Amino acid sequence: MRDRIPFLFAALLVAALIAVVGVAAFSISGTEETPQEESYDGVISGRVASAVLAVSVSTAGIEALQALPTEPIETAALEPTETVVAATTTEPPAATSPPADTTPPAIAITAPADGETVTSGVVEFSGTSETGASVSSGPFAATMSDDGTWTIRLVVSTGYNSTVFTATNEAGNESSVRIVVYYEPPTTTTKPPSTTTTTHVHPPSTTTTTEPKPPPSSCLISGSCSLQWPADSAGARGGEAWRSVVAQYWPAERVQCVVDLIQRESSGNPQANNSGSYLGLLQHSVWAWNGRAVGAGFVHEGLTAHPYNGAANIAAGAWLANNSSPWWGPWPPTRTIASCQALGAG
Predict the structure, then answer these.
(1) Distance of CA 79 to the CA centre of its chain
(2) How far apart, in whole angstroms, are the C-alpha atoms of residue 109 and residue 246?
(3) What are 91-142's pLDDT values in tens digits?
């Protein structure tokens, strides 16, 4: 900053010069006579008064200026600008999701053997699968153990019976295995013991001829269902539409459960078809249908009722329940139906 004191002194000198010039002008404008000594204690002319006033003011200003400090005014040093750097947080890399599980679970049947002949109308199938997976045969769920072993009891009919077991793991992957067993009911006739003893007679040589087993019997597959009980027209009608028919074949305490089960299994559509393997109101296996229809009495001249016949399907379900332990075992969804749970089902 520049020193302002010299400028103030210059201003005061200019004012003093003006005052001197005024006094000189005042003196010259008078006569040439030698001025008499007069006292100026009296009235002073306006011009002289102005000069005196200017000098007075200038003198006072000089005294005031002299009282001011003469050191130059220091300029405060500017503080260095502090650069603020925004703190940045380095985010850890996002965790990558593990690859989706696309591996189907292993499944195997340990008993009975494929193609084995069984002599019981209720066969217990068992096997192994992936721990945590579920195994089912159509709508029927197997009982799973913590080590991945499973068991399920299914009703079979005379002749060939084929079923598919499907394992589903927690990721939704599936794998299946098929098995065929042949059911041959035990004979009830026995030969009386022989009362004739023959000695030294060699038995005649015999030739054993194995007759071919009949093919899987299903009137739907062969196309030869009894016309006495033809298929009902397709269309979802709801389980309630079949209440009166259910009441004809099922115990009264199970009617509501079966009505709700029909709603769950087929929405009351007599021609409900699950992958061509499970049919009708109560979703009977196509391979086991003939045996169940015969058991329920829906057979005429060797031909069974059509599985899409509502009454025959319901009656075959009642026969199946009476030959199963527990009765609701062939329909695992009963465990989620309140009216069935009231009966201890599930």
Answers:
(1) 61
(2) 35
(3) 666 667 778 888 999 999 999 988 888 988 889 999 999 999 999 987 788 9
Residues 6 or more apart from 117 whose CB is under 8 A from it?
Answer: 181, 182, 183, 184
Domains annotated for the chain, with CATH where assigned, are 107-183 (2.60.40.10), 219-341 (no CATH)
Q: What tokens does 168 get?
A: 């589903």
Q: Is the pTM of this model over 0.85?
A: no
DSSP code at position 91: P
Cβ atoms 345, 257 nearer than 8 A: yes
* Structural contact between residues 62 and 9, judged by C-beta atoms closer than 8 angstroms: yes
Q: How many Å apart are CA 48 and CA 55, to the nearest integer?
A: 11
177 Cβ neighbours under 8 A, 6+ residues apart: 107, 108, 109, 127, 164, 165
For residue 110, which of 126, 94, 98, 123 has the smallest C-alpha distance? 126
Give 55's DSSP letter: H
Q: Which long-range contacts (CB under 8 A, 24 or more apart) does 238-246 make?
A: 238/263, 238/267, 238/268, 239/263, 239/264, 239/267, 239/268, 240/268, 241/268, 242/268, 242/281, 242/310, 242/314, 245/310, 245/311, 245/314, 246/314
Comparing 36-45, 139-148, 300-309, the range with the smallest average pLDDT is: 36-45
Strands (DSSP E) contained in 112-244 are: 117-118, 122-129, 134-137, 140-141, 143-144, 149-155, 159-168, 174-183
Q: Which two tokens mark 121?
A: 């109308």
Q: Rounded to the nearest 5°, which phi and psi values hold at 60?
A: -65, -40
Q: Which residues pair with 129 in a beta bridge?
A: 107
Of 168, 192, 43, 150, which is closest to residue 106 (Cα–Cα)?
Answer: 168
Quickly list DSSP for 121-149.
SEEEEEEEE-TT-EEEETTEEPEE-TTSE
- The Cα 152–Cα 140 span in angstroms is 8
